[in-house]
Every structure is written in C-alpha cells, then in structure tokens.
Design a protein that fits this description.
Elements lengths: L6 H10 L8 H18 L16 H7 L4 E9 L4 E9 L17 E10 L7 E2 L2 E6 L2 E6 L6 E4 L4 E9 L9 E10 L9 E9 L15 H8 L12 H7 L15 H10 L4 H4 L5 E2 L2 E2 L27 H4 L3 H7 L22 H4 L12 H4 L13 E8 L8 E7 L13 E7 L19 E5 L5 E2 L4 E5 L11 E14 L7 E6 L3 E6 L14 H8 L13 H7 L16 H5 L7 H10 L11 E3 L5 E3 L51 H7 L5 H9 L1 E2 L2 E2 L1 H5 L7 H5 L3
Antiparallel strand pairs: 1-2, 2-8, 3-4, 3-9, 5-6, 7-8, 9-10, 11-12, 13-14, 14-18, 15-16, 15-19, 17-18, 19-20, 19-21, 22-23, 24-25
Helix pairs in contact: 2-3, 6-9
Length: 717
C-alpha cells in the first residue's frame, strides 16, 4: 500500500510555518485528509470502549491519531528447506492499515514473532527457537522469540516476515504449527498508553486441515479476574500465545523452576497455600515472589479457570488427563517417583493416573478429580437450607413487623428451625440509605436490628413460617424499609467412614422491601452485584461462617455509621486496642480491601478487628486485575465490581460515613467512596476543600461528560 502524506510531519511543520508561504496546496491537502478522516468516523459507532483513553479525547485528535492496534495473521507457511514465513496485517480499530515505522500513520510498531509445533504424538508445544539462560540455578534452555528476520511491506496493508530461524531438517509437515505475534504501537509521543495486541495462527505445513490443537483454557476465563490478561510489559495478552513458549521446554534460570504454563500458573494461583510455602518455603519466578498470593476463590475450584462453558476444545482435560506435572504443581508435597504422600505409591509415568483419578465418582471427597476438590460446604451430600421471604405484615411506622417465609431443604422438603444452627432476621431502613435509624435504646447495632428467630419462629408442616419482630419500625419512619435473613446449618457428611467430616454452611441471604408509610416500595439502590463479586470469589461460603453471602444483605450491616467498635476492646493484638475504631461501611471496606498492597504507598493501612478480636490486616491483598503494562493491582476498572455504571452516578450515597481512622470523620458519601481507593491525604484535602455547608461539589468536575469524569480518569488503555 502507499501512504500519500506524513500526517505528523505536515501537522507539526504547518504549525512551525514551513508551509505558511507555500502555494497552500499542502495545507489544503492536509485539511482535506483530516476532513476525510473525520467523516469516516462521524456517523459510525466509536470503536472505543469506556476503558479506552481515546474515548475521552477530542474527536479531531482521535480521528487524526486513531489509537488502537489490531493484528491479523493472513497466512503461515514453512517451505521444504525449513524457511518460516508469516503474512499479516496491522490496522487501527477502524480497519485502516498502519505504517510499521510510524512515518505515515501515528505511532511506530514493534512486533515479536514466535513459532511452536505440537508433535502428533504429544499434547504440548515445542518451539523451534530456543535460547540459553544462566542464573543462580545454572544454565537452562527456554523457548524464545525470533529476531533478525526479514520484514517486507506488501500491497493492501500487508506485511511479510521471514523468520531468521528455520524449522529443523526433517520437520514434521503433518503436525500442527502455530505462529504467534505480539505487537505494540508506541503512542507515548501523544500522551496516551501504548496500544498492544496479539494474534496466533494454526496451520499444517502440508496444507492439511488443522485437527490437533492445544485449547485447554481460554483467555476469557482469565479475564474474569485479571480484567485484561497482560504480561511481559503488556504485549502478551492471550493464553493462546503464552502456551507457545510456556511449555515443558522452558525453565527459569534463577531458581530452576519450570515455567511450563500448567505448572507455574497452578503454583502462582496456589501461592500461600502451596504445601511447600506452608512448610516455610517460597515460590518465586525470577524476582517475582508469588508466595503471598491468596486465590480469591478457593483453589479447589478448578473450574474457575478450567471453565466448562468457555468453549475450549479440551476444557475437560483437568478431569480426563491428570498428570504428575499438573497435579503435583499444586500438591507440591507429593513425590510421584518415590510415592511420598501419594496413596497410590510410586508412579513411573502418567499412564495410570486416570485409572484411579477418574473425572467424577459416586461420592464427594473420593479419589476422582471432581470429588477430591469438593468443598464440604458445597457438597451434594448436604441436605441444604432454602429460605424464601414472601411478605411483611404489620410493617407500618410504629408497628412490629411480622415476616412470612418458607423454610425447606434442597429437595423442597419442609424444615423445622430446630435443625439449624442459627436463624436470624435483620431489619434496616430507610432504603434511601441505611445507617442512622435507631430501633430502640436497647439496640446497640448502628442503623439496624438483628433478632434470632431460631426458637421464636412458628412453622407449619408445609414449611411456611412466620416470625414477629420484638422491635418496631420507628414511629416517625417514612419510605421503604428492608428485612433480610441469614441462617446456618451444620451437618456431618459420610458419618462412620474414614472420610467423616463436618460441613458448615449458610443459606442464601434474601432481602424483602416494604413500605412503612403507604408510599410505593423502593428497593435499596443497586451499586454492586453479587454476580460481579463471584467473577473472582465464585462464592462467599466462608465470610462470617457462611452466614453472609449476598451484597444486598451485606450493606444493611456494613452501613455508613458502623465501625468495629463492638469487638475492638477484645482485640487479640494489643496495638489494635489503642487505635481508633475502624469504619466498615461497605464502600469503604471493599475499596480499601481491594486496594490492598497499594495502600502502603498511599501512607495508609486498613486493619479491621473482627469477631473474637481477630486481627485482619488487608495490606497484603493483591488485587488480580492487570494494568496495560502487565502488572497486577489495577483498580481502575470500577465496572468489575459495580453494576450498571453505578460508579459514574454521583452522589453514590446520602449519609455521611463514620471513618475514625481516616483524615476526615464523618466523611461525606462521595468522598468516602472515592477515597476508599484514592486513600492518600492530598486527595482527602482536595475533597475537603471542595465540600462546604451546601455539600460536596464533586459532580462539577467528575460527573459523566465533565472534564474529569469518573470514566475518563479511570480509563486504562
């Protein structure tokens, strides 16, 4: 293709006056080209999403720069002499070709090239290109990228790259080969992040159809927690690319650890729970120590990554093809060669693994792959507890409400409350914002009241029940109030067997809303959806002993006026007793927890004293979302937790938030939400300076469409 005009040079030299005394031809040409560029996008839907910096730039600048990078591999071939050739296109999001050198289109490109083969009798890649790495553990071979090949610009926006490396003599032309490209478009000169992209291409050199692939885990599964899978500076963004180099060939030289994908990914996600780490060791790759990683979901939840709905061809591999390498990466205290800690004794190969470790057996907790990874609180052998809230009677202001509900097991059979370990109902309101309603002088919980119904509930033989509150809705109450339920059940599973165990679990919290003054019922605003939390956590089966597991219920207690005051005097760490109480309003709590290890750089700490005086320091939490440069801990994508764009809707609450350890207490609702992550003192000072007797002025600058809108300041790419 031809690039008729150097946009950057013309634009800059026009400003400097180079063309000021010309016939005007070049100026006219420039503006015509800019007009064409603008017209091409003026009526089209923007290719930029809410997390792209380009979505918030001036439209003329965007039409000129056209940020973004898309790589598409057109073909891959290997000649009889082993010459490897790939043809590909590089374009902006609108499909307009990009100039590799950044002369005719903004932003020069840098592209890396890798190739791997899956031998017909194997299941993983081998790279034709390797390098030697020397470190503390010795010298090791590892898969590598090609360098020094020949790049040629073809017609129609295509590029051809001929690898310097060649396939070995006698390479198998009937085997599946994969060429991978990872590229970056340097946009630093324009003050926006570099654009990164990856692409892979499967082919069989002899022209046959590709039937043999490695497709175990899809990138989309990783993105559930990592937001945008990024590595090596952000240029590698797809599992399909990663596995070409991260395979059994590759070993990290500083400590001799394998970086085979199935090994090091399992180990990284096990982190602090690796038996070797629990025993006092550590797990590191190079300078990166992963020994402190706490998987947001229990690591027994294999399908958090091995998603059976992902569409991956070999998604069931974790069940059907157990191996010493894969299983031993998590269970790293097992020595399959000697038989240490392995009930089946020594194993000389993986050939017999699937004989004992079948995909799923007859019982939970057996030797099957799924059975061995069952969480007791989710076992199919539990009888379960299901509660539905049906209606509220006598719920007007000044009255003591009666809650109608059903109590049954998982099979739909009625349950008596006596089989439960606990059964309680919580009342709070108004739903416009919880936190500052008093339900009586005898109630010590701020903004809500919780009553045990374990012995007071009245249930019929069909499982329909009622419970009459002993506390009334306040006499002057107005609007809508809420009642939520929590219950716990304890069961013995596999009683009388060698696998006997106790399962403690909670019922799913349900919340019902009711009017206390005859007005229309108004549920509490939906800010965070439990389903969003479950993208990483899967299930809140262990929080508060499994009692609290739905965000709609959590916010009733974790309200603006609540702190850890009731339990701080019993703190097991003496220093905690001397500190002020810690605010635990939901937005403060969740923002601070997820900011985690980034808090130290902001000069903050977030430690909550829990039940029993427990010390809960969240300063070591490593948030899994990745930045555009490949580092974890990126909290800018608020929509990972927030639902329906609630993060951009200001104000986020109505009641001031008690934050005794913060620089401002009580702190206004918008400030509280934002300084949960932006926790340093200068930000607090900025917020305080823009708050007066009339309230917060945050919306002037930060509302949707404003110069510093929530979306624009949190854009990542």
């Amino acid at each position: 293709m031809r690039f008729p005009l150097n946009f950057q040079t013309i634009a800059m030299q026009t400003v400097k006056g180079k063309y000021a005394k010309s016939t005007g031809f070049q100026l006219i040409r420039l503006f015509l080209l800019l007009a064409v560029a603008i017209s091409m996008t003026g009526t089209k839907k923007s290719p930029y999403g809410p997390h792209d910096k380009a979505a918030y730039l001036n439209s003329v600048i965007v039409d000129f720069l056209r940020p973004g990078l898309a790589i598409q591999i057109v073909s891959g071939t290997i000649a009889a002499d082993g010459t490897i050739t790939v043809v590909y296109t590089v374009a902006d999001p609108a499909g307009v070709p990009l100039d590799y050198n950044g002369v005719f289109t903004p932003g020069p490109l840098s592209i890396g090239y890798v190739i791997g083969v899956i031998p017909n009798n194997q299941s993983q890649y081998t790279s034709y290109i390797t390098s030697q790495a020397t470190g503390n553990a010795g010298t090791f071979t590892r898969a590598a990228a090609d360098s020094g090949g020949t790049l040629t610009q073809l017609d129609n926006g295509k590029y051809q790259y001929v690898f310097k490396a060649k396939a070995p003599t006698g390479f198998d032309a009937t085997a599946t080969h994969t060429i991978g490209l990872y590229g970056s478009r340097n946009m630093s000169a324009f003050g926006i992040p570099n654009n990164n992209a990856t692409a892979t291409f499967n082919f069989v050199p002899n022209g046959a159809k590709v039937t043999h692939v490695r497709d175990v885990v899809r990138t989309a599964s990783c993105n559930g927690c990592h937001d945008q899978l990024s590595a090596h500076g952000g240029r590698r963004r797809a599992v399909e690319l990663c596995i070409i180099c991260h395979q059994p060939q590759s070993t990290e030289a500083s400590n001799g650890n394998s970086v085979d994908f199935k090994v090091f990914i399992h180990k990284v996600h096990m982190g602090s729970q690796l038996p070797s780490v629990v025993a006092g060791g550590k797990y590191a790759i190079g300078n990166s120590d992963w020994s402190t990683v706490v998987f947001p979901a229990d690591p027994r939840r294999c399908e958090s990554c091995h998603d059976q709905k992902s569409g991956a061809t070999q998604a069931a591999n974790y069940m059907t093809k157990p191996s010493a390498a894969a299983c031993g990466s998590c269970h790293d205290n097992v020595n399959f060669v000697t038989g240490k800690n392995h009930a089946g004794g020594p194993q000389v190969s993986d050939n017999l693994c699937a004989d004992c470790h079948i995909p799923q057996g007859e019982l939970d907790f057996d030797a099957s792959v799924k059975g061995a990874h069952v969480l007791p609180e989710e076992s199919a052998m539990r009888n379960g507890v299901q509660i539905a809230l049906t209606k509220v009677d006598t719920g007007m202001a000044g009255q003591k409400p009666t809650i109608n509900f059903t109590l049954k097991d998982n099979a739909g059979k009625p349950l008596a409350p006596s089989v439960l370990g606990s059964l309680s109902f919580t009342m709070g309101g108004p739903t416009s914002d919880y936190g500052y309603t008093s339900f009586g002088t005898d109630v010590t919980t701020p903004g809500y009241v919780t009553e045990s119904a374990l012995t007071a509930a009245k249930c019929g033989a069909d499982g329909t029940c009622t419970y009459a509150f002993t506390h009334a809705v306040p006499a002057k109450a107005s609007g809508s109030y809420a009642i939520g339920v929590e219950a716990r059940r304890v069961e013995t599973l596999l009683a009388g067997t060698t696998k006997q165990m106790t399962a403690t679990y909670g019922a799913t919290n349900k919340v019902i809303y009711f009017s206390v003054d005859g007005s229309a019922v108004q549920p509490r605003r939906a800010v965070v959806a439990t389903a969003n939390c479950q993208r990483c956590h899967v299930s809140f089966t262990t929080i508060h002993g499994g009692l609290r597991n739905q965000t709609e219920y959590c916010v009733m207690c974790h309200n603006p006026s609540n702190t850890d005051a009731p339990v701080r005097p019993s703190a097991v760490v003496a220093a905690d007793k001397a500190l002020p109480n810690q605010g635990i309003n939901f937005n403060l709590l969740v923002h601070r927890i997820h900011t985690g290890e980034n808090l130290a750089a902001l000069g903050r700490n977030y430690t909550v004293v829990g039940f029993g005086g427990s010390h809960n320091d969240f300063g070591d939490v490593r948030y899994p979302a990745m930045s555009s440069t490949g580092s974890v801990g990126d909290t800018r994508n608020c929509s990972m937790c927030h639902s329906a764009g609630s993060e951009a809707t200001l104000p986020l609450g109505k009641n001031a938030v008690v934050d005794p350890q913060g620089p401002i207490s009580p702190v206004q609702p918008i400030t509280s939400a934002c300084t949960g992550c932006h926790a340093d003192t200068p930000v607090a000072a900025h917020a305080l300076a823009n708050t007066d007797s009339l309230g917060e002025s945050c919306t002037v600058c930060h509302k949707t469409g404003a110069q510093f809108s929530i979306g624009s300041v949190h854009a990542q790419y």
